[in-house]
TrEMBL record:
<comment type="similarity">
    <text>Belongs to the peptidase M14 family.</text>
</comment>
<dbReference type="GO" id="GO:0006508">
    <property type="term" value="P:proteolysis"/>
</dbReference>
<keyword id="KW-0732">Signal</keyword>
<keyword id="KW-0378">Hydrolase</keyword>
<dbReference type="InterPro" id="IPR003146">
    <property type="entry name" value="M14A_act_pep"/>
</dbReference>
<keyword id="KW-0645">Protease</keyword>
<feature type="active site" description="Proton donor/acceptor">
    <location>
        <position position="383"/>
    </location>
</feature>
<keyword id="KW-0482">Metalloprotease</keyword>
<protein>
    <submittedName>
        <fullName>GL18860</fullName>
    </submittedName>
</protein>
<dbReference type="GO" id="GO:0005615">
    <property type="term" value="C:extracellular space"/>
</dbReference>
<dbReference type="Pfam" id="PF00246">
    <property type="entry name" value="Peptidase_M14"/>
</dbReference>
<dbReference type="InterPro" id="IPR036990">
    <property type="entry name" value="M14A-like_propep"/>
</dbReference>
<dbReference type="Pfam" id="PF02244">
    <property type="entry name" value="Propep_M14"/>
</dbReference>
<keyword id="KW-0479">Metal-binding</keyword>
<keyword id="KW-0964">Secreted</keyword>
<feature type="signal peptide">
    <location>
        <begin position="1"/>
        <end position="19"/>
    </location>
</feature>
<feature type="domain" description="Peptidase M14">
    <location>
        <begin position="122"/>
        <end position="417"/>
    </location>
</feature>
């Protein structure tokens, strides 16, 4: 009796401490978790609110910009949140009242779409993406070539696809789904692959055939599988920590380029932007570094796909006191992307700037590393739809429109790169 009571009490406490509960199919549930947009003016206000995110059980950071924070809050954390909002005298606006509701709708739509029909009406699992890649490789043996980046912490193969119609093309590398919960990125990357191979639109044909494409649809394979099977809101890798019970590292803070400088990543293993015990501690990022390093002469452009907030972010991420030598060009190229997307029927607006300038210092990210350490002079993080209405749980109906915008944006971006002389070969044929 006493034992049962203690056990129940312990379970109840565990439940409260963990915040999220576990559903019947062992997925973590987010019932009544809300997401708030908090606007602030001063650094003091920001720091007060930012501190909440240190308690990751009740508060999870979704998006952070210079003047704005998006926080997911557990129902248990609401009273503390309201008190802090009053104390800091900031305005907070709810935009997702119940995260689980969005996840449920998404799960329904994913299961309603036929599972043996790979397409873009739903979000595909890693197994589905890999089977589809195999199919592509079998159908287009001359134009496509599979490559392997390496092996993840949990032992999965990290795969990529090269598309090349002829020799002598400038190279474009697309890294996608380094952050596990950003499902729109791999959906967009696979849609682009399909367009490059099957589109009959002359503009797409020219784009596809006049560049060599190196596309990694899912870089953070362990995290991605985890978001499908266990926790939809997972961001990091899945390697355990030696100093904490918290699992995983922010892979986009783990590159050896100004690693952990200027508070550009957290040293707290429980933080969403934990930089890791050392640079390249994550096998996925070491693998990416080895592979890109081995072909860097062939690469003119690096694009890292993320969501959400509709931004193009150029180097530098580690500081806003300095700007890259070709910053004006980087902004002109980013503007070309933004203008093209905005002129498209959906009228979606993208902003652009350096990562540190427009958001906050973030060091050790792919785009900075590619620019600083690999000599790839055109290098961006692209944050796709939306600006917060759905955040990471973007409904599948957005997949194709978002991907169309990426296609039109990348076309304009590469046209501008060519005009500015960035697509010259760096090696002898
Ligand atoms: C969510 O909130 C509603 C309304 O307050 C409540 O009725 C419901 O029981 C809550 N659900 C869970 C799982 O806590
Ligand atoms: C709170 O902010 C508002 C406007 O942002 C300002 O007018 C007011 O004086 C502030 N109150 C305190 C106590 O700082
Ligand atoms: Zn991201």
């Amino acid at each position: 009796m006493g034992y049962t009571f203690t056990l129940l009490l312990a379970l109840a406490l565990l439940h409260i401490a963990r915040g999220a509960s576990v559903g019947q199919d062992s997925r973590i549930r987010y019932d009544n978790y809300s997401v708030y947009k908090i606007k602030y003016e001063s650094l003091g206000q920001r720091n007060l609110l930012r501190q909440l995110a240190e308690d990751r059980n009740n508060f999870r950071l979704w998006h952070e910009a210079k003047d704005e924070l998006h926080l997911m809050i557990s129902p248990y954390g609401l009273p503390e949140f309201q008190a802090e909002v009053l104390k800091a005298n900031v305005s907070a606006e709810i935009f997702i009242p119940n995260v689980q509701e969005l996840i449920d709708v998404e799960t329904d739509e994913n299961s309603r779409a036929s599972s043996d029909d790979f397409g873009w009406k739903k979000y595909n699992s890693l197994a589905e993406i890999e089977a589809w890649l195999d199919d592509i490789l079998a159908r287009y043996p001359v134009i496509t070539e599979g490559f392997v980046l390496g092996t993840s912490y949990e032992g999965r193969t990290i795969r990529g696809l090269k598309i090349s119609y002829k020799s002598g093309n400038p190279g474009v590398f697309i890294e996608s789904n380094i952050h596990a919960r950003e499902w729109i990125t791999s959906a967009t990357a696979t849609w682009l692959i399909n367009q490059f191979l099957t589109s009959e639109d002359p503009l797409v044909r020219t784009l596809a055939e006049s560049h060599d494409w190196y596309i990694v649809p899912v870089l953070n394979v362990d995290g991605f599988v985890y978001t499908h099977e266990k926790d939809r809101m997972w961001r990091k890798t899945r390697q355990p920590s030696e100093i904490s019970a918290c699992v995983g590292v922010d892979p986009n803070r783990n590159y050896d380029s100004h690693w952990m400088e200027n508070g550009g990543a957290s040293s707290n293993p429980c933080a969403e932007d934990y930089g890791g015990p050392h640079a390249f501690s994550e096998p996925e990022i070491q693998a990416m570094s080895d592979f890109v390093g081995s072909i860097k002469e062939k690469l003119n452009v690096m694009l890292a796909f993320h969501s959400y907030s509709q931004l193009l972010l150029s180097p530098y991420g580690h500081t806003k006191e300095e700007y890259p030598e070709n910053f004006d060009d980087l902004m002109e190229v980013a503007k070309a992307y933004g203008d093209a997307v905005e002129a498209f029927p959906y009228g979606t607006v993208y902003r652009y700037g350096s990562a540190a300038g427009i958001l906050y210092p973030a060091s050790g990210a792919t785009n900075d590393w590619a620019y600083n350490e690999q000599g790839i002079e055109i290098s961006y993080t692209i944050e796709f739809r939306d600006t917060g209405r759905y955040g990471f749980i973007l409904p599948p109906a957005h997949i194709v429109p978002n991907a169309e915008e990426a296609l039109i944006g990348i076309t304009a971006l590469l046209d501008k790169c060519k005009t500015l002389g960035y697509l010259e070969l760096k090696y002898n044929l």
